[in-house]
Amino acid sequence: KLQIHYVESGSSSKPLMLFLHGIPDFWYTWRHQIKAFSEDYWTVAIDLPGCGQSDEPRYDITYTLNNLASLVCGLIDGLGKKDCILVGHGSGALVGWHLLNQYPQRVSKYIMMSLPSMGVLQDLHQQGAIPLKVQAEALFLCLPRLATLFARSGDFQLVDRMFAQFAKPADIEAYKYTFSQPGALERFLKAYRENFSDFLVEEYDFKERKPSQTPGLFLIGDEDRWIPLEDCCSLLIDHYQPLEVRYVPRTGRFLHQEDPKTVNRLMRMFLNEKLDQPKVSMEVPPMTKIIQKDVCENCHGKSHSTAEQHENCSKHCDGEAHRHFLSKARIPICS
Fold first, then answer.
1. Span 117-146, mean pLDDT?
2. DSSP element (H, E) containing 44
3. Rounded Cα distance, 159 and 47, in Å
4. Alpha-carbon distance 231 to 236, whole Å?
5. How far apart are CA 47 and CA 75, in angstroms?
6. Which one, of 279, 253, 241, 209, lies nearest residue 115 by Cα?
7. How far apart are CA 234 and CA 231, in angstroms?
């Protein structure tokens, strides 16, 4: 049997919130969300097969996303639950979308971050919408010897470049320790190579067969340059309804670590929402780079000539109607 490592917090009598990390990553990526949601949910963050402390998978020769989705369903069974709130980031989101397609009854609600489904990625790739730089990166990660040497160079300076802007030194050391374990990087890269680059293969067909009816939230950083944001979200909404899309300002690929406060707030708003009928909400990222701060309803949409005016306006509201403008509309707040 394949041993899957996971970290849990909260009471098992509460609804299960299951977290799936991306690659290269491990359960620790969800530390902010585990802390924020363990009072109301049973939070369980796993190490995907081949990552962290989980066993390396025995790969099938075809369509291995099916195997990963089945494995997650088995884990839900093993935890004694019929379904879960599924949260995925990056490659973990790819597994999550696939699980939703194959086993919709196992997901009560879902929150995916950074990457759309494999079918949408394949559509974007076939349309020539995915930047060549991104395709080159995906192909580079499929070259295990070169990718491993690059990742190990300079005492794992790649980790510093990925996380230094938003992670604490202790967090960076946790990543370096995990990646430096014998065979760890090789397992990460093999997991990626076997499971998450198949959208580049024309012979594979990942098209969603039927629209989802499970309520969902898709979060993506407005500075994430991995995929074309608006094209990606339009295709997602075609297949997944009811779906809400939110752009998280000033964040890139690791939005849940870069701005956990905003991400957690958007997650909680979605989880507390009652969807009696399909609801589609697609927000559009800002057209220009602007000063991005929380503002009150009284000044929402008004232009401020200076950052100081904006700062004063945002400080002198009653707090009750306070919201982030990017969660609602495409409106420049400051000049």
1. 70
2. strand 42-46
3. 18
4. 9
5. 12
6. 253
7. 5
- As a whole number of angstroms, the distance between CA 287 and CA 12 comes to 44
C-alpha span between 79 and 325 (Å, rounded): 39
Q: Is the full-model pTM beyond 0.85? A: no
User: What's the longest Cα–Cα distance across the chain?
Assistant: 63
**Burial class (CB within 10 angstroms; exposed 0-12, middle 13-18, buried 19+) of 185:** buried
**Chain Cα centroid distance, residue 265:** 15
Please report where in the chains the tokens 């509309």 appear, as a residue.
Answer: 329
Give the sign of the dihedral formed by CA 212, CA 216, CA 222, CA 226.
Answer: negative
Question: Has residue 300 got a pLDDT over 60?
Answer: no
Confidence of residue 149 (pLDDT cuts 50, 70, 90): low
Q: Is the dihedral of CA 139, 144, 150, 151 positive or negative?
A: positive
If residue 123 lies in a helix (H) or strand (E), which one and from where to where?
A: helix 118-126
Q: Which domains does the chain have, with CATH numbers?
A: 6-282 (3.40.50.1820), 287-335 (no CATH)
- Dump pLDDT digits (tens) for 26-39: 999 999 999 999 99
- The answer for residues whose C-beta is within 8 angstroms of residue 24's C-beta and 6 or more apart is 51, 151, 179, 185, 188, 189, 192
C-alpha closest to that of 241 among 267, 263, 218: 218
More confident call, 85 vs 197: 85
Contacts of 103 (CB under 8 A, 6+ apart): 69, 73
Structure tokens at 136: 């080159």
∠ Cα 54 88 140 (to 5°): 70
Element (DSSP H or E) covering residue 47: none
In whole angstroms, what is the distance from residue 250 CA to residue 211 CA? 31
Give pairs for 125-128: CB < 8 Å, separation 24+: 125/199, 125/200, 126/202, 127/231
